[in-house]
Amino acid sequence: MRFDDVRSSPVGPRRSTELGGDEALALLGSVSLGRIVFTRHALPTVRPVNHVLDGGDIVIRTHEGAALTSRTHEAGAPGVVVAYEADLIDPGTHLGWSVVVTGYARLVTDPVELARYQAVLRPWVERTMDYAVRIVPDLITGIRLTEAHPSERSKPSESSAKV
């Protein structure tokens, strides 16, 4: 959105509540779109991808020549450090949630597992996606954005009080 297009929104104050790891993963599993963050040429790179949650791990599909495929193929144990973010925030009300998972990404090499992911995880782009990457969470954080109660609206937020 351009600055010229910004309109005053009648949305009131919001409260940010931290989510527990189990609730955050459950919310992440309830949507199919997320963003993977990894390094490419020592700089952060972000790609929108679809995913499935499998036993607490996040699985995405990639293709030959993709930067993430190359990075995970070259990496030894434990894998490549990545962040994965998914959210569901209403653009009108600004209510919803956001979850960030940080962990290690590795290529799925087991042919049976790979075939299973190819069957359940359909790519959104017309491209051959012969690879799958599993992200094993190490750190799971999340927030829920809710309306602030009238009694909370006059109080300074925790984050502004700490500045």
Distance between the termini: 28 Å
Would you identify the regions where 5 or more consecutive residues have pLDDT less than 50?
A: 159-163
What is the molecular shape? elongated
Average pLDDT, rounded to a whole number, is 86
Helix content: 10-25%
Task: Please give the oligomerization state of what you see.
Answer: single chain
Q: What class do helices, strands and sheet pairing give?
A: alpha+beta
The largest β sheet comes out as:
8 strands, antiparallel
Strand content: 35-45%
Tell me the Rg in angstroms. Answer: 19 Å
Which H/E pattern describes the elements?
Answer: EHEEEEHEEHEHH
Count the strands? 8
Give the number of helices: 5
Can you walk through the features of this model?
The chain has helices at 21-29, 67-74, 111-120, 150-153, 158-161; strands spanning 14-18, 33-40, 43-50, 52-54, 57-62, 80-89, 96-107, 131-147. Helix content is 21%, strand content 42%. It is α+β, with helices and mostly antiparallel strands. Strand 6 (80-89) and strand 7 form a beta hairpin. It starts with 13 loop residues before the first strand and ends with a helix. Residues 159-163 have low confidence and may be disordered. The longest helix is centred in the C-terminal third of the chain and has 10 residues, at 111-120.
In short:
The protein is of the alpha+beta class and 163 residues long.
Features:
163 residues; alpha+beta; disordered C terminus
Write the layout of secondary structure elements.
Elements: E1 14-18, H1 21-29, E2 33-40, E3 43-50, E4 52-54, E5 57-62, H2 67-74, E6 80-89, E7 96-107, H3 111-120, E8 131-147, H4 150-153, H5 158-161
Antiparallel strand pairs: 1-8, 2-3, 2-6, 4-5, 5-8, 6-7, 7-8
